[in-house]
């Protein structure tokens, strides 16, 4: 952003601010015309009327496929979870297993600040959007490389058998990938893409940056990338006071808003997912179409599926001490962070504060996807 500021000032001084009504700007955005001056507004909320919360932008990925971005203005929020929230997560309603310590890395509530505004994908990146990337570049995901594998649902799984042993429904498989995550149903373009690694996700962002820049639509100094962990949590909370979910603390208020482990039969079976569940049907035992729940499923920033759906990779490496206001990276043995929970998770694992450290930058899973953002480059990001 620093390098962009002098140009932005020149651009602003060369036009009449009062001459351009908001409807005209909205029209330009709808056409995909995106100026440096327009983005600068995101970083300067004092300018008010031009770009603010609720503004959107549609990116043309080619082949008739688009990706919608939502404006996230800068602001402050409370990161982390209270002891009461952690206790709820492992209680009868939250449904997670007590004693695993999975909730500990959320840390205590603490103030955090997002200094620069950014744009964020309205939804998780879909199968159709990821397909455009692969079609244009021939990109081969980590799971598809020689010797590669991904974690998918094991069709032979027949339950947890708590009295004897816990057998997980997930199994490492070769020959499976984002193209075929081993669902028992077709992998539609409207589903969130899964079985993509942190490396794969960053490659998608890099492709989009180059593509938009080549088309003259990307101002110098901005790029497509994964959101930082702080940006993700700020965006997830949706400009509301800290709570368990983006709509508040009440699980019952989540009905019709998210896809988690609920009262839905697995395809071709008479069983639902085990453990605690949301006490309603959300319609899907596995993935649901992105933004399936419409307005009711969107948070205060207009973002869909921030809780539930699929886990979303963010840019940071995992620090068991808690998420950081500035992006956090390690030199050795990095574990990328996923946020937000997924269709298999109990309510206690689909909260705004939930964090998960992933095995490695090449690991992929049919519960993990990603969401992109458009913002300033992040200091210290490992080379792509
Ligand atoms: Ca579900």
Descriptive account of the structure:
The chain has helices spanning 5-13, 22-30, 36-43, 83-89, 127-137, 198-214, 229-237, and strands spanning 56-62, 65-72, 75-79, 110-114, 118-121, 150-153, 170-173, 223-225, 311-317, 336-339, 355-357, 368-370, 373-375. It has 384 residues and is an alpha+beta fold. The chain has a single domain (6-375), classed as paralog of FGE (formylglycine-generating enzyme). A 5-stranded antiparallel β-sheet has the order 1-2-5-13-8. Strands 11-10-9-12 form a 4-stranded mixed β-sheet. It has a two-stranded antiparallel ribbon with strand order 3-4. The protein is globular and about 60 Å long. Calcium ion binds next to loops.
Task: Tell me the domain tally.
Answer: 1
Major sheet:
5 strands, antiparallel
Strand order of the largest sheet: 1-2-5-13-8
Strand content: 15-25%
Rg for CA atoms: 21 Å
Number of strands: 13
Can you tell me the CATH superfamily? paralog of FGE (formylglycine-generating enzyme)
Query: What structural category characterises the helix and strand content?
Result: alpha+beta
Low-confidence stretches: 1-49
Question: What is the CATH topology assignment?
Answer: paralog of FGE (formylglycine-generating enzyme)
Task: Assign the CATH architecture.
Answer: Alpha-Beta Complex
CATH class: Alpha Beta
Helix content: 10-25%
What's this model, at a glance?
The chain is α+β, with helices and mostly antiparallel strands and 384 residues long. The protein has helices at residues 5-13, 22-30, 36-43, 83-89, 127-137, 198-214, 229-237, and strands at residues 56-62, 65-72, 75-79, 110-114, 118-121, 150-153, 170-173, 223-225, 311-317, 336-339, 355-357, 368-370, 373-375. The chain has one domain (6-375): paralog of FGE (formylglycine-generating enzyme), CATH 3.90.1580.10.
């Amino acid at each position: 952003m620093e390098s962009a500021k002098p140009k932005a000032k020149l651009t602003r001084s060369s036009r009449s601010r009062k001459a351009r009504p908001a409807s005209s700007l909205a029209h330009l955005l709808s056409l995909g015309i995106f100026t440096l001056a327009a983005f600068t507004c995101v970083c300067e909320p004092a300018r008010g009327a031009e770009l603010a919360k609720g503004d959107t932008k549609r990116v043309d990925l080619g082949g008739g496929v688009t990706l919608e971005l939502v404006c996230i203005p800068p602001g402050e929020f409370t990161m982390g979870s209270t002891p009461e929230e952690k206790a709820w997560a492992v209680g009868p309603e939250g449904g997670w297993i007590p004693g695993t310590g999975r909730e500990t890395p959320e840390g205590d509530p603490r103030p955090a600040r997002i200094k620069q505004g950014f744009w964020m994908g309205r939804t998780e990146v879909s199968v159709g959007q990821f397909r455009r990337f692969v079609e244009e570049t021939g990109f081969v995901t980590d799971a598809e490389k020689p010797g590669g594998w991904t974690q998918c649902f094991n069709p032979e799984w027949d339950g947890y058998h708590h009295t004897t042993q816990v057998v997980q429904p997930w199994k490492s498989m070769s020959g499976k990938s984002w193209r075929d995550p081993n669902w028992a149903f077709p992998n539609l373009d409207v589903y969130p893409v899964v079985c993509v690694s942190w490396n794969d996700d960053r490659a998608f962002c890099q492709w989009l940056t180059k593509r938009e820049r080549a088309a003259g639509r990307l101002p110098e100094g901005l790029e497509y990338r994964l959101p930082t962990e702080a940006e993700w949590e700020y965006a997830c909370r949706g400009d509301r006071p800290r709570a368990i979910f983006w709509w508040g603390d009440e699980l019952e208020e989540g009905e019709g808003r998210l896809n988690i482990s609920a009262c839905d039969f697995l395809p071709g079976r008479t069983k639902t997912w085990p453990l605690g569940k949301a006490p309603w049907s959300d319609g899907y035992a596995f993935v649901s179409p992105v933004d399936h729940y419409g307005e009711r499923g969107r948070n205060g920033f207009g973002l869909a599926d921030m809780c539930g759906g699929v886990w979303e990779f963010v840019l940071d490496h995992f620090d068991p001490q808690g998420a950081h206001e500035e992006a956090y990276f390690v030199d050795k043995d990095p574990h990328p962070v996923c946020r937000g929970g997924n269709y298999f998770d109990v309510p206690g694992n689909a909260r705004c504060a939930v964090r998960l450290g992933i095995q490695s930058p090449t690991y992929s899973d049919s519960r993990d996807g990603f969401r992109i953002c458009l913002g300033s480059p992040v200091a210290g990001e490992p080379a792509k």
